[in-house]
């Protein structure tokens, strides 16, 4: 069993992985590097021994090496992700290839590889149970982004929970992580912010809208750099709700300048 998600998740020191790996979670890249250096350590195990690959969500650090893994290694297993993840994943990967400023030699894959990869991806519904080669698995909502899932895998009665990125906080377009129906025997938990405390959502949103309202009242405009998927949609909903409650702002337009976000808006 191996995780090839966020940076440093699969280390070269994990030599035990070379003995027996038949289950993989995620297939990301390291965003700070390009070319082969950005890939997980696929040489630490034999891809042909993996029969199931489960992808939690569409972010690059969890899914961007998937076309390489499916098209350029010996992997012949099955890949699963949710409907929304697959729909957005194709748009995000195509955008990633277009904006990557690397040499031809450093390109990990091209548009054709992405298209071939999409044909091999199967979709799974939340709470749907599937079985492959004796492994029973299902997924619950993880809240992180649209379509994000946490997977529970049952192998010979031992339940393993792999969360990916998740959040227990509900917002305007995503509900909170579900309470699991079954307790896992083993948890593999994303912990990027595991030791940090964030302000409550209502406090953060008030700070956000207060700054915007104050700036506009003084004749200014506000430019907001935001991730095109997830963050942008959340901020737009916050602003839409705030604008509807403040008639004095009704003549102030809101624009978002992201072709990728625009293409994905129909999915949201």
Please outline what is shown here.
With about 270 residues, this protein is of the alpha/beta class.
Mean pLDDT: 86
- Gyration radius over CA: 20 Å
Helix-strand sequence: EEEHHEHHEEEEEEHHH
Number of helices: 7
**Helix content, binned percent:** 25-40%
| Oligomerization category of the chains in this entry | single chain
The main sheet orders its strands as 1-2-3-4-5
* Overall morphology: globular
- Which structural class best describes the helix and strand composition? alpha/beta
Cα separation of the termini: 33 Å
How would you explain this protein's 3D organization?
With 268 residues, the chain is of the alpha/beta class. Helices cover 28% and strands 15% of the residues. The chain contains seven helices and ten strands. The strands form two sheets. A five-stranded parallel β-sheet has the order 1-2-3-4-5. The chain has a five-stranded mixed β-sheet with strand order 6-7-8-9-10, with no helix packed on it. The longest helix is centred in the middle third of the chain and has 17 residues, at 83-99. The radius of gyration is 20 Å and the shape is globular. The protein starts with a strand and ends with a helix.
